[in-house]
Design a protein that fits this description.
This protein is mainly α. It has one domain. About 95% of the residues lie in helices and about 0% in strands. It is built from one helix and no strands. The model has no long low-confidence stretch (mean pLDDT about 90).
């Protein structure tokens, strides 16, 4: 009797486990994409500022 209940619960919980894993992976991918976007923006700003930094260092 109890073994049947345990097996039935496993069958019902499996879709929720899959949904939880899918949600976790989606959140991770969104966070990673956001990090990559910000690194690209920061790189563009650094590339624009680098010539100015070099000019200031040459003056000193």
């Amino acid at each position: 009797m109890q073994q049947g209940i345990i097996e039935a619960v496993k069958e019902r919980v499996l879709p929720f486990a899959f949904l939880g894993l899918a949600t976790f992976l989606r959140g991770f991918s969104i966070a990673f994409a956001n990090i990559l976007k910000n690194v690209g923006l920061r790189g563009d700003k650094m590339a624009a500022a680098l010539p100015l930094i070099k000019k200031q260092q040459q003056k000193v």
